[in-house]
Protein 1
Amino acid sequence: MRSPGIYFLYILFSFALSLETSAQAKKYTHADTLKGTYSKQRSWWDVLHYDLHVSFNATDSSVKGYNRIDYKVLEPYGVLQLDLMEPMSIDSVIEGKSRCYWIRDGNSWFVSLHKEQMRGEINNITVFFHGKPHVAVMPPWDGGVIWSKDPKGNPWISIACQGMAAQVWFPNKDHMLDEADSCDLYVTCPKNLITVSNGRLKSIDMNDQGSVFHWKTVSPINNYNIIPYIGKYVNFKDTLQGENGPLDLDFWVLEDNFGKAKKQFQQVKPMIHC
């Protein structure tokens, strides 16, 4: 009779062999290198804040907007790498009052700055973009933008990009070694819809294009966690007695799910206390 240790060694060997076979089968490309390498064009600057303004058009599945990126200079250098996935496109990169020149290499954009970058400085650029982003075929397993409808036929829009990366819909420094310390997200949506996102809702304004929802996150956040949810949402509130005083709770649910959510979310308070 064979001992359990022999079976364990056999399983371990088989697993290692399968990993080696998978590694051999994978052919790494130039695009993989640009996406995964923390290169000189990435390592010299530290993202501090994204001020992201974006509108979603469900009629033609398009996105447009701009992202002001505040960053700290870690080392003097003049070229930075931004990431935005095809078929999305950058229209312009503004530094101060000047347009910057860039070279595009697939999904990577290498931007040449005008200003001399001095160690310790806080600088910014503004990146204007537009396009029809990759559509998620089978979210969340397949990444991209989700253009869907609720049971009543109202538009429901969101993004599944943890595996694909946030560059699928907005320009950013898309690498795991850096994330924004904070983020302001302004989303324009049709006036009959609601946008829910990370952090706290700071304001709702109206313009000719629709309703502009401003959500603010004051903690560090991964790029792929900056996600808007656009739909026919309703809100209800509650209060949790925390260790240092009352904490407010905000719940946002699709209109048709309001009754079920009021019952289901009774679990929230005991979960948080636990």
Protein 2
Amino acid sequence: LGSFSIGGSHAASLGGNRFALVHDKGAADGSPETFAEAVHAQTGLDVSAASVDTDQIALTGEDGVKALVFSLQQFADGSDGFDMDAFGDPKALLGETTERVRQFRQILNEGAFSLVYQPIVSLETGETRHFEVLSRFDVTDSIYSQFEMITFAEDVGLIQEFDTVVLSRAISRLRQLRTQGVEVKFAVNVSGRSLSDAGFMRNIMSVFERAEDIRPQLSLEITESAKIKDLEALSATLHEIRELGVRVYLDDFGAGVSGFQYLRQLVVDAVKIDGSYIRDAINSKRDRAFLSSMVTLCKELGIATVGEWVETADHADLLTQIGVEYGQGYYYGKPLPGLKNVNRKAVA
């Protein structure tokens, strides 16, 4: 396959029994049938082959590449609808990916999203410690949920730009509130994939350096919707962030199989225990045992704990008994555009 590729070095394994190469469509030996025949002649293996013409990709520039790479990854993973027949048809291969990339790019360019705030409350005193900053897309005709749009942005490579914009907007909001005499702290969600990107890190470290006055009011929540691959590099990144005085939370702890691995390799200030444990712990001795073990581990590591999905007084009481320090959920407040129960001080 390498011999058919441009320069003889643009062929690669996609995993399993799937391979890909970049070739010149104008070459005499550039047809899929030629590839298949050559492989069969050399190996005796029967193979299926198809080509996608990049000239037919609707998006151009970086976004076009992102859409193509995402679709190739779906093909490599064997996802539904990404078979060999689809590969031979650019429209079928890219499916709705190009439209979704275009839509997300429009959201970024127009700032078509809003911020809402959900309180994190001390279970001991009932006082609001800080607010989690969440994004809500202003796209009424989208068939995708907020979570699906974020995971797509992670997979297609647009999440770094989105996380940067959200963080900058949250900092601007903090400064605006300060001029109004409001003292409040924010926790901003940042994808683990973003934090693993060198370009993103340069950008946000620059943002933090220019926001020295705001840093004590900021925390970052690392989301786990996309698996973090290089934990060693991320650990160094988090060290830099915490050295600046910005607290770091590990979100949805316990939801995925990687949570304990993350906790072992990453130094964080707090973890947010996934709400599925809390939702069922009222009636499940097994879930209470898991919940209690998480809290004990975090206490021994000097890590604060936040319980998600606190929807009733019974949930709050159970978390208090187990030793969880903070709670978040509809019992304390839904994510809203405004802020409630904040401290105010006189301003000149």
Protein 3
Amino acid sequence: MIGDGLAWIALAAWAWLLLFRGRFWLIEKTVPAPEPAQWPAVTAIIPARDEAETIGEVVRSLRAQDYPGALHILVVDDQSRDGTGEIARAAGATVIVGTPLPAGWVGKLWALEQGVRLAQESHPDADLLLFTDADIRHAPELRRMVARLIAERLDLASLMVRLATTSLAEQAIIPAFVYFFRLLYPFRWSNDRLSKTAAGAGGYMLLRRDALARIGGLATIKGALIDDCTLAAAIKTSGGAIRLDLADETESLRPYGWDGLWRMIVRSAYTQLRHSPLLLAGTVIGLSLGFLVPPVMTIVSGLSCAPAWCAWLLMALSYLPMLRFYRRSPLWAPALPLVALFYLGATIDSARRHWRGRGGEWKGRVQAPGSAA
């Protein structure tokens, strides 16, 4: 009887999510915006720490843009030890060597801050800033993004770039990563000026310089581990308009194995829960109820437990658009509960590391140290 009751709750939850959670599961094509009469200058700022394998291709892809206006490319070499700066310079970027990390700042934001300062000095004509990562290969999308930002009077236009799905680990985990992000931050809500939801994707954030100044600059969010969504929220709260879409062609060059994907989730999962044990407990219960109860009850009870297999079916159907976007077989859809179990384990591990003083660890830096630090 308890199992049947949980199955009914799971079914009701999935019905509510599909109907009332901002249609997070639906991937809609964007309509091209009309081009402006004048194209503003853009400064691309790339924070890079030990990115020798990808930084050259990133810079070259930016230099190959068909953007009609001026485009300046700045790379902030964040204490790299692998020749990142030299490779970026050879590819055609302006490179500055970052200074040591001050107290209270996370590494990426401090690198971006140094890039913003240099942009203000050397390219004061650039009204737009493009924050992008050192592993992003840029398709010729800048022209389209600037046109959209101007036509829709946006302060921030962001793209969630296409992540690699070459290995088995990536094929299993990456589409679900984007799916869960959209479940947490429905794009339709984030793009709605009347909604409080705000989200951005740090791999591609095109923003107005005056919008950044309006919120007090990056110093106001200097300790944010989830910098992209925090910046988007700050801009939206200040009265700005934001937009987040999925990128069709711009893509990440970074490969992930099982361990790399685990660490990617672990880095920020507990921060997303505001380091709250209560929110962690709620997440464990919610993921277990929504993603694990339906398949378990279906396997245990068979088709006699109709609410369980109906909930599993709704879950799988909601996952199909994301699998189609990532060009993966629909046969992955019924396996979403196993992927959710992976995310659940990583979230618990994220809390454990925070409690042990190793929270937010990335490339040798502990950025959310917790009480044990």
Protein 4
Amino acid sequence: MRTTKLQLFAIVLSVSFSACSNNSNPALPRSVNEVFSPKPIVIERPLAENAPKEIGLTVESARRQTEITKIYDQAYVVLDYPNGDVSAERGACTDVVIRAMRAAGVDLQKEVHEDITRNFTIYPQKWGLKKPDKNIDHRRVPNLQTFLARRGKAVPVTTDSADYKPGDIVSWDLNGKGLTHIGIVSNLWNERTKRYLVIHNIGRGAEAQDVLFDWQITGHYRYF
């Protein structure tokens, strides 16, 4: 019997990997667009002349991670504070953003921890914690979404690829049921689809992929 595209997508979705929403939920594997789309024609686009230097540092760090971070690992780890990090060869989707932002002088571990400490009840109460935890709070997508929104960094979520610029942070719902994911927009441009690749880690290490609209976008943030 011939397997249809829809049937194959269903098979793809049935495979379980790790995700970023917390320390136990499974994540989706390759998206249907990644499986069936033509190979991208990728070029590097220069940043705008008036772009803040922090954007260049953020994008450069995110791209460098694709050469270093080869393992997906969202395990709880006791970290140094501030500027704590897991081993560079591993991490979760949030670690891509944390490392990229840290290269631009923003330590999300410290910033998120301090804000949660002052405003604990404002943040999502999804993990049964009774107090802030500097080892994990910043490595959870819902917490990053809350922090970025509270800092006034949210910009409109649209379906127009022109609205998503290098250095932007994007979050998604992978399965329509709250399975969260996050990544950062690069300056690598797909000539076929006319949009920037996203650097993220969904289970195979940090990768630059044309997945911006593969899942439901739940947040769009511009820090610099």
